[in-house]
Amino acid sequence: MSAPLDSSKLTVTRTTTPSQPKPNDQLVFGQTFTDHMLTVEWTEEKGWANPEIKPYAPLSLDPATIVFHYAFELFEGMKAYRTEDNKITMFRPDMNMKRMNKSAARICLPKFDEEELLKLIGTLIEQDKHLIPVGQGYSLYIRPTMIGTSVGLGVSTPDKALLYVICSPVGPYYKTGFKAVKLEATDYATRAWPGGVGDKKLGANYAPCVLPQLQAAERGYQQNLWLFGPEHNITEVGTMNAFFVFQNLATGKKELVTAPLDGTILEGVTRDSILNLARERLDSNEWDINERYCTITEVAERSKNGELVEAFGSGTAAIVSPIKEIGWKGESINVPLLPGEQSGALTKQIAAWIGDIQYGRQEHKGWSRVVADLK
Amino acid sequence: MSAPLDSSKLTVTRTTTPSQPKPNDQLVFGQTFTDHMLTVEWTEEKGWANPEIKPYAPLSLDPATIVFHYAFELFEGMKAYRTEDNKITMFRPDMNMKRMNKSAARICLPKFDEEELLKLIGTLIEQDKHLIPVGQGYSLYIRPTMIGTSVGLGVSTPDKALLYVICSPVGPYYKTGFKAVKLEATDYATRAWPGGVGDKKLGANYAPCVLPQLQAAERGYQQNLWLFGPEHNITEVGTMNAFFVFQNLATGKKELVTAPLDGTILEGVTRDSILNLARERLDSNEWDINERYCTITEVAERSKNGELVEAFGSGTAAIVSPIKEIGWKGESINVPLLPGEQSGALTKQIAAWIGDIQYGRQEHKGWSRVVADLK
């Protein structure tokens, strides 16, 4: 009988040289880490070993470890927020835990008890509470990771794994409010395919996208907008899901559109939250909220007709990231912005809705969950 | 000006505790390693550092290193053979070096001078010459590997990398001659796609294939035969390229078929060698040698008509691996074998041709290259 992940078996070894928090304006995404990390080893024979919190330190791995050769690796991206009454909250962390288990199952890495890992993450955060930045837009980025640690060059199911969690204090993605981005609609490389793993948060989905990103950057675009198939369906941005707002000029009705979860699209927590809030809060006489295929051709045509109203990406890092321009076949599709601003009205509204929930200013269906109480 | 990879700058630190060779019958593929490894660090700023050969030892890496999160990793598989006159030869190693550079370019890892790395590999092999097993079918499996070692959670071009090479003494893939395998034709998962990275030797191509392999194994098949597209084109096996032999019963003419290199197929060195040898040595009045799309439906139909003569996989590990059965839609496509044997006639012939070149019994276009002289 292999042992389950058990937070009650945690051992904590604290650093003897705690670090000082950096000033908020020196925080760079994913570059500074807190003093402690969580590690839990797993073997097929014995299951999950006792969890350990210990000083942040290098991993020591045999050069024949399968994570280096066959990409047995997955991760999650989550944030913890410090509220005004000194609680630490996370935004829908159950969604990340569920997705992490789905990623693990897809590459034969071990599943774990989601509530137990959340408890352990709460305890990890408490160790470094003085390093969690305070203020609107500031948070602790949390990176749960799982790697296959079997040693040997045969390609087969991992019989050893390491789950670890590291944390990075981060600031707002855009220091001075929104900064709308330019995307290049990309059909010269393909991010994901039906029957593949594009809907899972696996390392394998990322390295292959960096060369096209570099190529797009050379033409002045920050990111790729990945297209799929002969119809050039818009899928996602790779680090973000993609949303479009159209207005039918004949009827006046508006539509919020994002790609359906067909196995090629990452199941974004922010994506799901936006769809939920939009369905609850936007007037259904004025709005349709649709998960449907939308081609780049449709976006280009409706832009020409004046029916393209807004576009934005969604993800844990930036919450919503307004899009101001999409390059496609050498032409520019320009996306309207509010006069003198870097986003459209709905983009701004959604960012405010989610920010209020994340920072505990508004309760919404238990989405903001207390994982540690610093009092 | 960033420094090129330079074998003249090599430093060698030898182990103080050299190991004894294992008996040939205890060698398991990729489980035992030699005493030394080659490592070369690279930074964007300075280029390639001085190469080092040192005792085989764990890698120590920050838990935020990009190889753990975004699959910045690639590898090669090569073999070194000990000839009767005490030379160490490798089989077309220039092909592996070229492919390794193509893999590196695809995920923005650094390119290197191919001849320099081959020289370094030769010197590495010399350190552990007593561990290279002797005998037909025995060899030293060589695993050049490159990983991205930048530290940080942003998804971008690596500015640090580590190239390393480890070696494993291995025996014949099948201890007692051939053992024909059963494959499951797989359309419920997709290994590679146009615009993806299926033709590169990236870690990213491997972990996603292990779950389907497990599912096929539960139904009694050793490997997946990956299909692609609505026509169910046969692509490859994931660890091997796939070949089929048909005979047109009306004309008597035979055909050797494998999938064309369309970007979804690994550019196998053994695949290329088989095509070369077949074109040179098979009588063109009797044989057509074709790189063309071939569907599983064609294989099933020609099996029923008695036109399917042989099928085999090709790769560095087994050279050729005869196929005896392919499962497809709940039915079995049976592949003929020679009476009382585990392969067809051409499969056996090709294995002999390549074996003679690899072990230096026959010279062929410089394919067998001396990389170290132990005299």
From TrEMBL, chains A, B:
Pathway: Amino-acid biosynthesis; L-valine biosynthesis; L-valine from pyruvate: step 4/4; Amino-acid biosynthesis; L-isoleucine biosynthesis; L-isoleucine from 2-oxobutanoate: step 4/4; Amino-acid biosynthesis; L-methionine biosynthesis via salvage pathway; L-methionine from S-methyl-5-thio-alpha-D-ribose 1-phosphate: step 6/6; Amino-acid biosynthesis; L-leucine biosynthesis; L-leucine from 3-methyl-2-oxobutanoate: step 4/4. CDD domains: BCAT_beta_family (cd01557). Its EC number is 2.6.1.42. Its cofactor is pyridoxal 5'-phosphate. It is an enzyme of class 2 (transferase). One of its GO terms (molecular function) is methionine-oxo-acid transaminase activity. The modification N6-(pyridoxal phosphate)lysine is found at residue 201. It comes from the Eukaryota. One of its GO terms (cellular component) is mitochondrion. It holds the Pfam family Aminotran_4. InterPro entries: Aminotrans_IV, Aminotrans_IV_CS, Aminotransferase-like, B_amino_transII, BCAT-like_C, BCAT-like_N, BCAT_family. Keywords: Amino-acid biosynthesis, Aminotransferase, Branched-chain amino acid biosynthesis, Pyridoxal phosphate, Transferase. PANTHER family: BRANCHED-CHAIN-AMINO-ACID AMINOTRANSFERASE (PTHR11825:SF44), SUBGROUP IIII AMINOTRANSFERASE (PTHR11825). Belongs to the class-IV pyridoxal-phosphate-dependent aminotransferase family. This is Branched-chain-amino-acid aminotransferase.
